[in-house]
Amino acid sequence: MARNAIAQPTALDIGNLPGFSAEDSMAELRELSQSAGAIIAGQVVQRRSRPDPATLIGSGKVEELKGALAATDSELVIFDHELSPSQQRNLERALEVRVIDRTQLILDIFARHARTREGQLQVELAQLEYMLPRLAGRGAQMSQLGGGIGTRGPGETQLETDRRKIYRRIRHVKEQLENVRRIRGQQRQRRESVPLATVALVGYTNAGKSTVFNALTKAGVLESSRMFATLDPTLRQFKLPSKREVLLSDTVGFIRNLPHTLVSAFRATLEEVQRASLLIEVSDVTSPAALEQEAQVEEVLRELEANNKPRLRVMNKIDLLSPLKRESLIDTDSTVHVSAHNREGLDRLLEHIDRMIEQDPISRTYLRVPQSEGKALAAIDAKAVVLGKEYRDGFVEIEADAPESLLRTLRPFRMERNG
């Protein structure tokens, strides 16, 4: 349910990453709130040298907020800063409306967008662990969580204030997630039995990862300008210019101060990032905070112990730049500029991926295959780049660039260059 909301960022939060200005932080909070269905009625910014232990923002700012709430008839205040349980309770008593922080807002968006059973379980676990220290003193407010911003309960389940029941539910969800991880591990083992490299798309939320994913795989996954439109992981196979096939994984977007409960809960999903042969880091070339967003992606990858993996930078959305700026863009060995929406630059992107994938390496080979070996000839046409072909004395002599996995099956037909 959409609600009128007052957005309240503070310079205390912005200080965690100097590159994010108050305007950047407010714009991101506004976008997150709208993704959750809020109608923004106003915004208040405060700069403090240190937080107020009772209300984070101090009594004077609390009174200012009360006036803004009365003037706009709002029923929700969203803080761009993590609130302690006591700060949240004190603010709700003083303001007489619901108060949520950035973490609770992100959890709410995740709850809305989870579609698979695994995604729903991961969100529920993160919500339960977030809510547990906030049960004390909330009484009837926590007896049932209804739909709406910051109040979308885990699986629409009634949450009792009895901690033992919460702990029991957490254990149950963890057991179910462990089953999901085991099944995912078995599926991964089957995939790894064939030489198929995995490429993982990573990047800040709303950088256009799903659009890049669709452009490369024609998968048709949801593309949206809303933040965290992609939550459940998607794997699709696609072919490189060398005719090698790879798996592409679309992952959840990263964000500044991504709640640790979410990173932990989504570790099963993010295992695809940890095990990928190559990371494609998608950035929005039009974002004024692009450098700061990349720093946040780096931080999450470091937490996942995946920051040292081979990486290709994809600067997306060049169709939104002016012609003059587009002319100044230069691709390098590790960076390529594309417009996934217009499919511009995709050929260069595929060539970069092909060059950086080390699994199942390509080598130049010469083959002499009897014309009666139709199966072998068909495999060569399908899985190798044929550079030359001659028919001679009932044989087909072929020069080709072929992957190692194919050459192993064609060993009887290989010959030296001089014949």
Tell me the overall shape: elongated
Rg over C-alpha atoms, rounded to the nearest angstrom: 26 Å
Query: How many domains is the backbone divided into?
Result: 4
Which CATH class of the largest domain is shown? Alpha Beta
The main β sheet shows up as: 6 strands, mixed
Termini distance?
74 Å
Total number of helical segments?
15
Please characterize this protein's 3D structure.
With 419 residues, this protein is of the alpha/beta class. It is elongated, with a radius of gyration of 26 Å. It is built from 15 helices and 13 strands. It is 41% helix and 19% strand. It has helices at residues 11-14, 22-35, 59-72, 85-95, 102-113, 117-131, 163-192, 209-217, 260-265, 267-275, 290-303, 323-327, 346-356, 374-383, 404-409, and strands spanning 4-8, 39-43, 76-79, 98-101, 198-203, 234-239, 245-250, 278-284, 311-316, 335-337, 362-370, 385-392, 395-403. A six-stranded mixed beta sheet has the order 6-7-5-8-9-10, with helices on both faces. Strands 2-1-3-4 form a four-stranded parallel beta sheet, with helices on both faces. A three-stranded antiparallel beta sheet has the order 11-13-12. Strand 3 (76-79), helix 4 and strand 4 (98-101) form a beta-alpha-beta unit. The protein starts with a strand and ends in a 10-residue tail after the last helix. It folds into four domains: 4-106, Rossmann fold (3-Layer(aba) Sandwich), CATH 3.40.50; 114-178, no CATH class; 194-356, 3-Layer(aba) Sandwich (Rossmann fold), CATH 3.40.50; 362-413, no CATH class.
